[in-house]
Every structure is written in structure tokens, then in C-alpha cells.
Automatic annotation (TrEMBL), chains A, B, C, D, E, F:
Gene that this sequence comes from: speB
Principal EC category: hydrolase
Cofactor: Mn(2+)
Cofactor, free-text remark: Binds 2 manganese ions per subunit.
Species the sequence originates in: Natrarchaeobius halalkaliphilus
Gene Ontology terms: biological process: putrescine biosynthetic process from arginine, via agmatine
Listed name of the protein: Agmatinase
């Protein structure tokens, strides 16, 4: 990482945290690889998340390596920018194949994948690769939506059906999974049944507000078991803090709640994470959504280092 | 309502919640009519609320019919988009006459009016129609300002004088009315006296913060009595959540507080509501203000269905 | 069309030109149907054109019915807003099937289709329907790009391959087709050969600038023959005039040149047109791209009325 | 004027051209008074021009005093910022009375009024004051619209009826007046008759494009006779150059054409001018519309100094 | 202050709170002088704070003089707008000399300085002037960053080194100073030592959240002693509320917390304050950052009046 | 260069034209090095050009390698992204030293420097390096301003004094230099003398408009002699086409004129160029200024390849 007291943050090619740009992980053998998945076609409202990885890279130039809250130091950790998956616009299933292949190649080298979406459909392809290595994993989903619908417009894959298919395909273990941040309307009372039947423990915003973020964070750590993957949908956060997203939902998490929740991942066996649905065309002039996403990525990286997963230093 | 799992939300003519566009209420005989009042000329700072109804329509395409928090289902409720009042730019009093006539025609058909402003001056004309049918009503005002001034620039009607005139004209009963969310400066200590003398119970932000939203919501339900009209000024919400408004006032409600307060209307005798001062030219690129306004309208519709008013199903 | 001297332009549900919102063309039997195709997934750079139809509807509320330059009066012409094709995000080929079906159903009623995209890939599906009725048509393509590439990312359909496939599938007759407005870089000199081999007469910007818009307009009318379809890609226009598009290319047409070129379609046998690649997330705050697109649509409608095609009154 | 080589342009209170802020003209006795008319309620589409005067003030901090094209030097000319007329939002006719009174008070002191609107309705009130002093004047109208309609929404005053009323009230002499820049649709062929009957010579964009800006400028100088007032509607310019306006019309003047046309006012008997319809909420992030309006104001001031009117130095 | 019920807020030259524009303080002898410091060159990320003073002036036209929470009335207090310091772009040290000279001249007249930055580097120059008059002062720093680094890019002065130099130069007394609002990453654990060694008591966001804003406010009042200067960095606030700033840091104060903290300054011996790092090019369309900054300035002015400092009326 | 038909343009780390990111030129030995100079502190109005290099990199992902107008193919030319100069915010002269050192190191390797500013002050440092190698060069300046002033705010270096100092220091030969695009006001008639005395041939916009772009381009080629450096200030272009710049000046070049002028550099002995004053915070949502700047850079690279300079293939 370039020293921001020597070279200003606004200077130079914006790789993630101004880390080396590396295609060949085997030779570089880093601890962590940042990987972009710029696909946004399977969205039900606003596209734009294809520019999410680049926006997070730009915002990440503001990050510093030491976390005073968790006392985690990323300085001795080697991070590289592993570029993006070459997606195929307009072809969801072909794109999924390319995502799965690329994530698998990262996992084969035992490098921790820190993934930036893309819309939430892409997480299914990521989980296929993860489950291939680890078997069904515990899923931590911070999200305004359950993504448990079965199909959209007569087709199976969409950013609203990811978790349904992940369960169906045996990629995650619902009984050790948890979802936090849901809110807004549903299509009918049958959706509530669907949520209950899926077997994932979930905490909508109203319950989170009543219990407090600390209790929910504790519950998260109790719930997960074994290899754990965290999928962070930026729309879990209120649009005031994260306007740049595809399906905004008012009444969400504050930035402080979001960052605190991510810190709750410390001590788990974190094997990877993705942060999805950052849609820069709808962000504000300051890029606040991308800036928050970069900070959230930083907190998740610290949690990975403080976990017993492949990036763990415990 | 068009099925968003068949036809994407971004497709088609944006009526409110993609409901039928209906001019003739008598024939359609719906439960609820969405009606726009695109007037913004009686504003003391920023205009633009004339585009509020269209922005709320666009954002409402994101809404789903079932509310899992209140377990209210709008699917069996018939909602129509009753278009807008044909206002007269630059002529406040002529515009008021047209608003009053149109709202009266809705009330005559016993359809519940869900109104989208326009600036807050227009509420006076709405209340004239409402009081004509119901007599003086209880007013629930969620607002950053009292709107109790007597005149502006030597003329009586303005978005800052609405409630004063509503009391003067006997349209509302102050002794069963309540105002929540006030903050910011006043012209002098005499304004405090004016607020006290008006007879409306009020809870400025500082008091709301100390007591908590639950207690204030309980107080709201205790205070109102008989036919109740809710006037929701989006500027009650902090500009972080609702930048697109005419006279922004920092230090306001969060989106969660705002939505919770509106849910407090359940169980009252709600006879109508308006949501005013959404000024799209000042909104962010994501339309966050309009999105929140659409969600607030949804919560108010749920409360109307859960009330003993004309849309009530209790 | 609602009288804008009675009801302000900013009021009411924004259908195209505030015309009736009609699903059933057979009963309504209008002269012209405005139809949206909100698909933007087959784009190589910026998405967002799915919101093009709605943006053009909003901007079209500014249009008046009489064209003093061409002395064309749309008042006696019946126009309806035929809503949008229900596309399938992330599934290009399934979407194409739905577009083709819907356009065919319009053509079957002998109504003139005025189509708003959507990205330029969708024109292929439109042309399939058109050619099914008329056989190979003359194509007038006003565009910054040739769209003659054969594939992108290993898949055949993309907004850069439309015209190649239209020729391959026999939907258009290159020998009576013309392309105007091309500029910017190519992948190599072989692209020039590809352009020449395709058989479409073409006028890049530099040639247009040297010859003048009048001469090119005359050439357009000489070139086309029989049923003619016009495909207007807004990126033909310079980004200063039309920033809201997916693949902007500096050095393009001015608004006056663009509108004049469209007027050149008068006197042809115009059987339909589409205006594509309006991407509102990248438009300016004033919606200048959509406003220009609405004016261009108006000019094309006037040309349709002044043509010997199905909307022709000559 | 503050020296921009001593105090940066971005520093200090933004009066017009950083000139003194003067309420009392009689004592100050300047050559030219800049006066704002922040009224925008009589608009048929987008409001916002009430912030026009402030935006022009801000942009004017970029101006320098010497015009190398016309060799006009404003350094020896005393200019003051005479603040704004205290308008009454929502009350057009009361506002007109205040505008007329304030402009009359300027004219009484023989100071040249350089006026910044506001919407185009306000020009009627300005012309009442001007005609009171000078009798019917020659009008130079650079505008996308004729503003010759008789009423809107059943009321007489609107930004679309100004010139009609100016003729009716005998404030201008059509036979020595000229209009340049018109384009876009009309309500019907009867509007063409209305334009012809009004007696003002006019040059729509298409004619201007065919004849060239020089010829039209020459014609302007030939046409006007005696005291001349110029009303510059920023919407004469294409939205690419001036997006921040209330009723944008594609296909307009370029900035070079606009500035050249204004220079054509040199040598006339210019007694005042206004520049209207700058609506900052719709301007771009750079304030391009306001920047162009400031440059246009500068050119008009140079023309005033090079005229035989009250600011003339010839 | 101009009466906003007579002259609309959007009218006229935007001085701070529409107060008189005064260069000569000695003659005017006001209680409070608003002074801009439009320098933003010593910033490590985004510039733009040079336009902060103008943006705060514009937003301040919304302020009213009476504070109902603290019962403070600014009506009898004389406030003037003392324009801006003529800074030198690109020359930090020369600019510091000009700032120090101008602030000293204000302090010599015993007028209370209410300063609007500029980036946070400028506070060093302000403190030099303040300490010259009062000796080492108590510093209240509300800020996302400590600004305790020793140099940037090999040069001493930067917006990240201000407090370090203020201590080194003996301008502030760390033992009676306090910092609130810090968060985000550091360069390493040595930065924590640096913070501890500096001797300023500090409350990062996580601690503030756990203790509550009231307790921290109480602690502030206990900590400071004697002449107190408050430096309010708008980046203490979360980017959701204040996106328009140079180095945004997610997870910050809400607007209500920020305003409450400023109210805690009541009862101290406040001798001046500055509000820095408002960068309008990154603000939202509504100017929310500037609006909050204006409200914060109002609260700080009320605290100054309720203090035993030079503006105090106790 | 990555194949955009294999990997979408929106994917991956955005180096210039997606070329290799290379710090060590000696080993790589490319034909052309893209180099950023992110300094914007010596600006008299709006900062932001420090983000110019990154914005041009992002926009350059749209470029293709073959120029059909000039028949220039960049495919066989090796281009690298040489990152940015590590500037020192707030310290102009220290920054100049770093720029000069870095450009000298590029020139030493005989690589052609393609430089992206930064404000126009930085060109002085670049020219120092260029003249050190080549002696006084011919300067082609396309610019809205002469940059011939001697000092600003009492200091010598500023974006308005660059050419004055370049002449004074003997870095350029005025008698073989040319300036195109000037317009707008000056401080007084003495500025015209200054321009004449400087000895650079110049063509203000009005003269360019009268003569036509072809003639001026021809004159450019006649005027220059020997090693030639082109400095392209994006503010030469009209703000409609390039709003994102520090000191916008209405009435400028169109994009077509700008690109054509740059093509006129073919056949000269081009030894380097810079493109300055792209200020992304003021650009539009589409990044039109950066997109035009990327196209202009492409045209200048083609001219370099078609020149007898170090990148020349003739």
C-alpha cells in the first residue's frame, strides 16, 4: 500500500487500497484478493452496480490500514487487487459460469476472496464456488430483502432469488445462517411463511431497533457455525447513507449500525465475503455510498484477519 | 396493481402503485383515490413541489402490497390514480378554489383521499373540503414548522400560514390536534406564545428525542378524537433523508421515526391525509425523498385501512 | 391530448404527450401507438436505457401538436400510449421474443409504431416484426456507431451487433439503407472493410460536416426505397446535447442538425421508427437528453404523417 | 469593482461583478444599476427562476471589465448592485405592482436598469415602468417562444402572455420590434396567424440558420427605432448551453450566436434590458447557464455603453 | 437583519443572515463579525472548501433569530458580514499570514469572530491570532480526525497537522482541551500513542455512542477552562448529513447530535469559533451540508451570546 | 490494451486505455507514457483538476485503437500508464520541482510524454523539463485564456501566468508559437498590448469563426517550427461541451472544432503534450468533459504517431 503521507490519495491509478494490481495469484501468493464482479443485469429496478467495483476502488484510496476500534492492523497483511471477472452483459447464466470459475481459482490458491458486486444475483455463483470447496456454509446476510423468491419474469435467476437457489442447491446451511436488516412491503402474507420455512433466522429492522445492535451482533456470532460467508447488500443501509443502490428501501440501518454489525463477524470462521448492489449512477456527488462500502469492506477485512478463516491471524 | 414479478417495476406508465388511471370515481367506486395537488407558488424559499405528485408516482412503482409489520394487506383494497388538480400557477386563491372543489367531489363519493402536494399552503384548501363534510377535524401535523403565522409579505395565504387559517376558519379542532417534529429558529419569543395560544399540543424534536417515538405515538392516539386528518410535511424528516423539500431544517426525524409515527395513526378515525412539500428539483439522484414519501404514503394507506375511517376494514 | 392551456404540463399522469393510456389497440384503433421497450442489459458500457421510455414520456408533456416548420398538424391524428413491453432483465433472447410479439401485434392492427428504447440491441427484435410484415425494409440509421460487429463476449446479441444480424437475417436491404453520424475510433482497419462490405451507404461526421446537413438529407431521401424504418440512436448527437446515453461519443451532431435530419424522412414510406439509448441516470438535471428525444420523436411523428406509410396523410 | 488579481474571485460577498451593494441610487448616482426580480410563479412548467438573480451574481464574479471584441471598457462606468424587488410568492398582480414601482424609481434617477429575472411574466411589469417614462418602446426579444398567447388557465398573466399584453397596453411598438430565436411546436396553425398579426418582425431558428447571425444582427439594428428595450430569454439558447431554464426547447442558439446577437444592440438607443428565465435548480453542476447569462449581461452592458441610451458614452 | 416576512429569503444579496456587509469594524462596532476564510489548498483529498463561506452565506438566509430550545434571542445582537480574507491560492504560508492579520484586526476591536472555512489548515492561523490576544486557549474540537500528524508530503502545514502545530506553538492548552467525533482508520498503533501523548481528552464515536451525547456534552463543559475556542469540522458529522466535505468518514454524528454538542458550549468563555471543511462542489443539490453548517453556526452564535466571552450577555 | 470485445469496458482497474501500469519506463521501454499531474492549487476560481488524471483514465476505457479519419493505428504502438507525479498540496514551487523531475526522467528514456493535468500552472514545470532537453520549443496553445499575466495575488506562479514565465525563462520561442481559442473579458486595453508584445500569434474565437477551422489549422502547421509542445486547455471548448473546468468561458470551441484542431498537429515535430484543467467535481453526471478529454488525448496521440517527434512512425 502506497504511503498517503508521501503520495496524496488523489494521485495514481486507483486499485483497491492502492494495492498491487495482480492477475496471477499463485506467484503473488497474497493473504487477500480484492475481486470485482461487475454484473448488474439481473436487477428488478435500477441497474448500475456494474460500476460498483470501480467506485469502491476509488473510495478505498481514503482507507488507512489500522483499525483503532478493533486494534486490527492490516499493514502486515498482503492485499492485492485481482481485477474483475469478465462478465457477459445480457447473459446471466454464462456470466455465472465465469464468476464461479474465477472465484474457484482464487479459493484454490487459499487466498481470501474479498468480492465487490455487482447485483445480488452474482452471489449465487460465488456461493457455488465456495460450497465446492467448503461444503454448505453458514450465511450471514445483511440485506433489506430476503432474496428468497423463486423466480422473476418466468426465469430462475435474479437478484431477488439468490438465497432461495442457494438453499435449493445445498450451498448454504439455513440452520446456521442469519439475515439482518429486512424491511418494506411484501407481495402477501405467504411471503412471511416463505421466510419462516426457509429456516434462516432473521431480524427485520423493527426487531433490530427494539433489541439494539449489540444483541443482534451477539446473536450473529452464536448462530453461525463452521465456514461462514458474509453477503453484505448495501441496501441494508438506509438510502440517506447509501442512496447509490438498485432497490432502495427507506427505514434502514445507519452507517454506525452497519459498521458495528460487520465487526460482529470477528471470531467466526470467515471464508469470504461480498459487498453488493453499490450502483454509482445513483450515488450522490460525494460518492457517499461507495465511501461507506469501502469502509464496510475495511471492517470486513479486519474481521477476516480476526477470524479463524484463511486470512485469520488468530 | 400490476404484478411486479411479471412486469418489471421500471416498465410502463407510472401511475400511483401502477394502479388504474381513473377520472370518474363514481363509476370506478374504489376504496382509495390518490390525488395530486401540484401547486408550489405560495412558498417562502424553494419551489418545485409542483413536481411532487409525479415523483411520488414514479417512486411508488417500488411498493409491494403487504405490510409485514402491521400485517396489513392492500391487495384486496381498490386504489386508483385520480390524476391531479388543474392548478393555476401564480394565482393562489383561484387554485385553492379548484383544490377544494376536486377534494369535495372525492369525498362525495365516500372514497378515501390520499393526497400528494404541492406545498403546504394547499392543505388549507383540502381542509376546507374535509371540514365541509365532517365539521372541524382533529389534525395530526408532522412538520418541522408550525405554519401558524398570520400572513407573509402582506398576503394571507402561504405555506407558513395554513394552520393559523385552518383554526380561524374553524376547519380543525385544536383541542384534539397534535403537532410533532418542530425545530429550528423562530422570529422571536412571541412565536412561542403564538404556538401555546393556538391550542394544538406539540412536541418539538428535542422533546421527542427525550421521550422516544413510542411515547409520542401513544400520545398521538390519545389526543385525536373523531374524524382525523393527517398532514405529513416531508420536511419533518431530516434533510439527510429528505433533501428534496422547500424549506429544509436540519436536526429532524430519521426515516424510521417518521414511518413509525405514521403507523401510530392506526386505530384512529382517519378520513384523509396529505403528504406535502416533496420538491424533486432538490432531491438527490436516487430520488430518496420521493422514495421515502412513497413509503410514508404506503404506511398511511395501511393506517387508513386499519382505521375506522372510510377506508377502514376493521 | 390534454389542453396545456387548461391543465398545466406539470400536472397529471405522464403518458406520452398526455395521450390516452391504451392496452387494447384493436378497440381504440388509433393512428399511432407509442410503445416503450425498457431493456438495457445488452450494453457494453453504461446501462440505464430501461428508464428511457418513462423519461421520454415525462419530457413529452412539453410538446405542442403543430409543427410550424413543416406545417404538420398532429391535432387530428390519434395517438395513444401503448405502455411498455414486459422485458426480462438479464435474459436477452427471451426479451427479444417478447418485443417481437408485441410489435407484431401492433403492426397487425395497422397502427404506426413509435418506439422508445431501450438499448440498440432491441431494434433487432423490432426489425424481425417489421420484416415479417413488410419484408426487408430500407433502414435509416442515425447513429455514432455502425453496430456491425458480429459478436461481443462470445455471444451474438448486443447493442453493437444489431445491424450485422439484421442484414444476416434478411430483415433490411442494405442497398437501400443509409447510416449517418458515425465517428470515433474503431478496433482496426478491418472495421472499415466491414463497413464497406455491409453495403449500407454511410456518412461519418467529418463527411457530413463538409457536405452540410441539407445535402445529406437529400441523399437520405434518394437512397431509401419502399417500406422504410428509421432507427434513431440518441448517441448520434454530441454528448453536450445528449449526455444521457450509454456509450457517448464526442464530436457528434448538434440538436439542430439532428432535428433537420429527421425532417428529411418526410416523403418516404415510413412504416415505423425507434429512438434508442436514452439513459436517464446519466442525463443532466434538466433532462436535456430526454427533452431532445421527445422533440425528435415529435419530428419523426410529423414525418410519419407526411409520409406514404401507415400514418401518412398525404 | 474589486481587483481579481488582489482578491480571488471566489472570495467575498457575491454582489453583481463584486460592485457596491447600494439601496439608495439617488445618493450613489451610478451609471448602471443591476436589479433582481426573483419571481417565478407564473410559469407553465418548471419554477426556479426566483434564484436567477443570485446565480447570475455568483457567476458574474468571473467577469472582467474590458471587452476586446467591441473595445468597450466598463472600468470607468459605475455599476452598483441595487438588490432585488421584494416579490410576493403566489400573488402575481401584487408582485407586478412592486416590480413596476421599483423600476420606475430607478428610471427616475436616470440610471440604466440591468435587470435579472425571474420568469418572463415579470417583463410586463418592467415594460409598464419603461413605457411610463419613454412611451411605447422598440422591443428586441431573443426568445424560444413568442409569448403572444392571451391567457393561461383562465388568467391573463403568465410567462407565455407577456408580449401580447405589452402590445395591448401600448407599452411597445410592434412595428419597430423584432423577435429572434423561436422554435418548437405551436398549438395550431392559428398561432402562426397570431404571430403575423402581432406586427413584430420575427426570425425563427430555421430562418436564422439559413441567413446567418450577421444578417439577422444587421436586421435588428435596422428594425428598431428610438428608445429600445431588450428582453433576453435564456431559453433562446439551446439546452446544451443553457439547461437551467423553465421551458427548455431543443434546437436553439449556440452561445456564440447568442453573444453575437447581443452585440448587435450596439448603436441603438438602449434604455434598459432584462435577462430572464435562468432557473438554477435545473442548471448543471458548473452553473453553465448562469455563467452564460453573466457573459450575456456583460455583452448587453457593453452594448448599453456603446449606445445612445442613458448609459451611452458615444 | 432583513425581515423575511417582508422580503422573501430568496431575494437579495446573500450576506450572512442578510446582515450588513461591513469592511470597517471599528466604525460599525458590532457584537459579532462573520468572516470567511476561503482557502482549501492544504487538503489531502478533495478541494472545494474555498466556496464554503459563500455556501454558508446562501444557506444562512433561512435562519431566524430566536432559538426556542435555548431561549436565546439574536435580535438585539448586532451581527455583520465582514467579507473574506484575501487568500493566495497555492501559497499556504503567505495565506496564513493574511488570515492571522485579519483575525487579529477583528480581535483588536473586541468583536466576536464567527469564522467560516476553508479547510482545517486555516485554523492554525486563526489560533495564532487568538493566542496572541488570549494566550493558550482551551480548544473544543468536533472532528472526525485528530489533525495531530506532524507533516504531510514533507511539508509542515496541512489540514491534517493543525492541532499538532497548535500545541507545538503553544497556542492551545491540551490539558483543558477536548476532541469529539473521531473515527475511521489510522496509519498504525503509533497513532494511538500520538493521540494519548498529545494530552487532549478525546471521545471517539464508539465511546460517544456508548455514553450518550448528554454525558459528553457535560464532560466538555467540565474540561474547558478560561478562554475557549471551538473548531467545528463539518466532517465530524456523517456523510449522510454532510456529504459536502473534503475527507468524508462514514459512521459519524447525526445532525441532532452535532447541534446538541454545540449547545454544550453555553456557559463557557467562548472567544471565537470556526466551522471548516464545507466543500460545496461535493454537496447535494439541496445544499444540505451548507444548510446544516448554517444551523450549526446559528447554535454556536447562540452559545457565544450565552457565554462569558466577548459576545456574552450573561 | 485489453480487448473490449472480450472484457467489457466497465470491468477492471482503470488505467489509461487499460494499458499496463508501469513505474519503471527504462525496463518497459514503451513508445508513449501517460502521466498524470494532479495539482490544482494555483487556480483563481474553481479547484478540482487534481482529479483530472483519474477521470481521463476512466473515460479512456471507451477508446478504441484505430482512427478512421486519419487512418492512424495505435495497436502497434506501446502505451503505458506511468501513474501520477506525487504533488504537494498547498506548495506550488515544491510541486513544480517534482513535476519537472518526473517529466525529465520520462524524456531521458526517449519516451513520448502524454500528460494529463492538473491546472495550467503545471505546464510551466513540464516546459522546464522539455526545454532542458530540446531548448526553446514551439508552443501550440489551445486555450480560452492567454495565461500571459505576470503575477496573481503578489505571487508569480498561477494558472494565469504560465506562458508569461515560459517566455521569460526562455522555454518557448514565441515567434514559432500560436494560441487559439481566446475569448471573454480582459482587465483593460493594456492586456491587448501585452498579448501583442508577447510575440505569440493568436486567433481569438471571433477570428476563428470568421476564418473557419481549416484555415486556422493550416496556419498552425505553418507557424510551428522544430520541436513542438502542445498544451491543450479544455476550457478552450465551450462549457456546453466541457463544463468540468476551473474557469469556464462561454462562447468557446465545439467538440468537432476542438478535435479537428488537434488533428492539425499531424506532420509537426511533436515532442509532447499536456491536456489540462479537467475538473471532475464540476463535470456532468455523464462525465462529458472527461470523455471529450479522452477523445482529445486519443487524437493527440494519433498526431504524435503521425509526426516526426519521438513517437512518430513516419
Amino acid at each position: 500500500m502506497i504511503d498517503p503521507q508521501e503520495v496524496p490519495r488523489f494521485a495514481g491509478v486507483p486499485t483497491f487500497m492502492r494495492s498491487p494490481h495482480v492477475y496471477d495469484l499463485e506467484t503473488a501468493s497474497p493473504d487477500i484478493a480484492f475481486l470485482g464482479v461487475p454484473y448488474d443485469d439481473a436487477t428488478s429496478f435500477r441497474p448500475g452496480a456494474r460500476f460498483g467495483p470501480r467506485a469502491i476502488r476509488l473510495a478505498s484510496t481514503l482507507l488507512k490500514p489500522y483499525n483503532p476500534v478493533t486494534e486490527t492492523d492490516l499493514s502486515p497483511v498482503t492485499i492485492v487487487d485481482h481485477d474483475d471477472v469478465p462478465v457477459v452483459p445480457g447473459y446471466t447464466e454464462e456470466t455465472f459460469a465465469r464468476i464461479e470459475a474465477r472465484v474457484s481459482s482464487v479459493l484454490e490458491t487459499d487466498v481470501f476472496p474479498a468480492i465487490a458486486g455487482g447485483d445480488h444475483s452474482t452471489t449465487l455463483a460465488v456461493l457455488r464456488a465456495v460450497a465446492e470447496k467448503y461444503g454448505p456454509v453458514s450465511l450471514v446476510q445483511i440485506d433489506a430483502h430476503s432474496d428468497l423468491w423463486t423466480e422473476y419474469f418466468g426465469e430462475p435467476y435474479s437478484h431477488g432469488t439468490t438465497v432461495h437457489h442457494a438453499i435449493e442447491e445445498g450451498l448454504i446451511d439455513p440452520s446456521s445462517s442469519i439475515r439482518i436488516g429486512e424491511r418494506g412491503g411484501l407481495y402477501g402474507p405467504e411471503d412471511v411463511d416463505r421466510h419462516d420455512d426457509a429456516g434462516i433466522e432473521y431480524y427485520p429492522i423493527d426487531e433490530l431497533e427494539d433489541r439494539g445492535i449489540e444483541e443482534i451482533g451477539d446473536r450473529l456470532r452464536e448462530r453461525v457455525d463452521g465456514p461462514t460467508f458474509a453477503t453484505l447488500d448495501i441496501d441494508a443501509v438506509d438510502p440517506a447513507y447509501a442512496p447509490g443502490t438498485g432497490t432502495p428501501s427507506p427505514g434502514g440501518l445507519t452507517s454506525r449500525e452497519f459498521l458495528r454489525l460487520i465487526r460482529s463477524l470477528r471470531g467466526t470462521t470467515l471464508v469470504g465475503f461480498d459487498l453488493v448492489e453499490v450502483a454509482p449512477p445513483y450515488d450522490d456527488a460525494a460518492g457517499s455510498t461507495a465511501t461507506l462500502a469501502a469502509s464496510a469492506t475495511f471492517e470486513a477485512l479486519c474481521a477476516a484477519v480476526d477470524s479463524s478463516g484463511p486470512a485469520g491471524r488468530q
